[in-house]
Design brief:
By secondary structure, the chain is α+β, with helices and mostly antiparallel strands. The chain has helices spanning 65-74, 121-132, 148-154, 179-183, 193-199, 251-259, 271-278, 309-318, 321-328, 358-368, 391-403, 416-424, 443-450, 484-495, 499-516, and strands at residues 28-30, 45-50, 79-81, 88-90, 93-99, 102-107, 157-162, 167-172, 213-219, 224-229, 242-247, 265-266, 283-289, 292-298, 333-335, 375-381, 408-414, 430-436, 519-532, 535-536, 552-553. Residues 35-67 are annotated as: Disordered.
């Protein structure tokens, strides 16, 4: 299916601000569209079924892709991703430019929040401060804002100068290549200053943005969220009257619901459920190469054995990741050898996945002094994710593989939202996790997931890990890994605007991550969606989606 978003053809692109995942981050852009071009048409209720309910509707209080599916309908960002691609297009900003340590932004005039207030620079400044500034009167607290705050905006912005209601200059702490892409991330969704002041943390259950859909209600008992069309939306669409998000935990049940007409779009498909959709006359299976990683992380701060890279390597050899991908995931993924997939620039083609080699694993365990084995807990989510559509089966395979080399694994399975809280507080020994890119830049994998977020001088001599109570620690680094050579490479790559130089630095970082094995690299998965035959203009989007404003329903 193709997108009906014709806005690009009527816009004047002066300079490309993205291109593909491999595009440069330093760019300028001008958009000549206006709110007068927007049209709403069509109607009906679009039902989107997924594997898990949301945990919050505040984009500053989540790291969960399930939450983002809903908040992306309610909020806009200064810059957006083109549906189904990784190039940048205009959102609430019509012009932008990044040079050195300064970004200039011109915002679109005439855009209103769902309460009727106009969106201006003041709203973005309030958004930024609520997310990153503990001295801000309306800062909700360190335990409330997600770990996205620092690595999306907080670490990079030193100040914002307002140059009128619609223009601002953002001063950066350093040269930062991915900055424009960060402005397009869900965590950079622009909130209403008035809502921040009046509602505080109530935005978690009562969101209010400028997006194509308006929040109506959330039936948490039945795991159902209802949105209505924003009749005053500044852009094109929406083309349905309502969107309902509903949660159906079992993959096959979700697929059968689609086939029977109880849902219009579904995600979180595994091999069996994908087959149900593919064989149906009432639905279509859509797929696209994903920009993601699925992995098993070792919490080095909690388990002493994991601090020895020979143990980590041994586990990587002992786990048959190829069997997990080919037998359990059955063709919807490929084995991984490094943190980024092959469609992101900086991918190191010289690296291969760890082969299944129990003898080598036992040899390394013997060398490390763990030849008789040890015991650890593997925390896993129960619900399907794109990067791990069958987590319980995968965990059982890990348990069986490691039992062969004397390691006992106790599986701790939890619903997704409690699981994220559990791992983000460092309570796990090891855990399954994964990542679906926020901005298609390698920094969004390397720095976001494997850099501890602290300066190198905070890493104790002789250690390649830090404790979870280290000031400024990045809780997305669930391995607590802190390899200073790796940190140096990723920090240098952030400051480099030459793309080839950046790519070379990331290839070196990939080699270190592969050899040091803070994770068992499992897979890069396809993005699969089941779509009813009544659905038009839906596009599979590995980044920035789902783009439901352009979807329409036929009778």
């Amino acid at each position: 299916m193709t997108s009906n978003d014709t806005s690009v053809s009527r816009r004047n692109l002066l300079k490309a601000a993205g291109g593909a995942a491999a595009s440069a981050s330093v760019a300028g852009y001008v958009d000549t569209g206006s709110a007068e071009d927007a049209q709403q048409q069509g109607g009906g209720t679009l039902t989107y079924a997924r594997g898990n309910d949301s945990g919050t509707l505040d984009p500053q209080n989540t790291t969960s892709g399930e939450d983002v599916k809903v908040t992306n309908q309610i909020y806009d960002r200064l810059i957006e991703f083109k549906p189904g691609e990784s190039s940048l297009v205009a959102g609430l900003a019509t012009e932008w430019n990044l040079q050195g340590q300064k970004a200039t932004v011109t915002m679109r005039e005439g855009v209103t929040f769902h309460n009727g207030n106009e969106c201006t620079v003041d709203d973005f400044i309030a958004t930024y401060r609520r997310f990153t500034d503990s001295n801000y009167e309306y800062y909700p607290g360190d335990e409330y804002v997600s770990s996205y705050g620092p690595f999306t905006l907080g670490n990079w912005i030193s100040g914002i100068q307002k140059n009128g209601d619609y223009e601002m200059t953002i001063q950066l702490e350093q040269r930062y290549a991915p900055f424009l892409r960060n402005l397009a991330m869900f965590a950079s969704s622009v909130l209403s200053e008035q809502a921040i002041q009046e509602r505080g943390t109530d935005l978690s259950t009562n969101p209010m943005g400028t997006g194509p859909f308006v929040f109506e209600n959330w039936d948490q008992g039945n795991q159902r969220i209802r949105l209505s069309a924003n009749q005053n939306y500044w852009g094109e669409g929406p083309n349905v009257s309502e969107v309902v998000f509903t949660a159906i935990g079992r993959n096959t049940t979700r697929a059968q619901t689609l086939v029977s007409g109880g849902a219009d779009i579904i995600d979180g498909l595994g091999a069996q459920s994908a087959q149900i959709v593919d064989q149906s006359q009432n639905a279509e299976l859509l797929e696209k190469q994903g920009i993601n990683i699925g992995y098993l992380a070792f919490n080095m701060a909690r388990v002493e054995a994991f601090r020895d890279k020979r143990v980590r390597q041994a586990i990587s050899y002992a786990i048959n990741t190829e069997a997990i991908v080919n037998t359990i995931f059955r063709g919807i993924a490929v084995p991984a050898s490094q943190p980024i997939p092959s469609n992101v620039f900086g991918y190191n083609e010289e690296l291969d996945p760890y082969p299944h080699d129990p003898q080598r694993a036992q040899q390394l365990l013997n060398e490390a002094g763990y030849g008789d084995g040890f015991t650890f807990e593997l925390a896993t989510f129960q619900n399907p994710r794109a990067y791990n559509p069958s987590p319980i089966q995968a965990a059982q395979t890990v348990k069986s593989n490691l039992n062969e080399v004397g390691i006992t694994v106790n599986i701790n399975q939890q619903p997704f939202n409690p699981f994220l809280n559990y791992t983000s507080s460092g309570k796990h020994d090891a855990c399954f996790l994964g990542w679906m890119t926020d901005n298609a830049d390698p920094d969004n994998f390397y720095y976001a997931l494997l850099h501890p977020g602290v300066s190198q001088d905070k890493v104790p001599n002789g250690q390649d890990w830090v404790s979870w109570d280290t000031e400024g620690f990045n809780t997305l680094d669930v391995a607590a890994w802190a390899n200073t050579e790796f940190m140096d490479l990723t920090e240098r790559a952030q400051k480099t605007y030459n793309q080839q130089e950046r790519a070379n630095l990331y290839k070196q970082a990939a080699q270190i991550a592969h050899d040091e094995a803070p994770w068992v690299f499992i897979d890069h998965a396809k993005e699969l969606r089941g779509v009813g035959t009544n659905v038009q203009n839906f596009v599979v989007a590995p980044i920035g989606g789902p783009f439901l404003k352009q979807v329409s329903l036929s009778n």
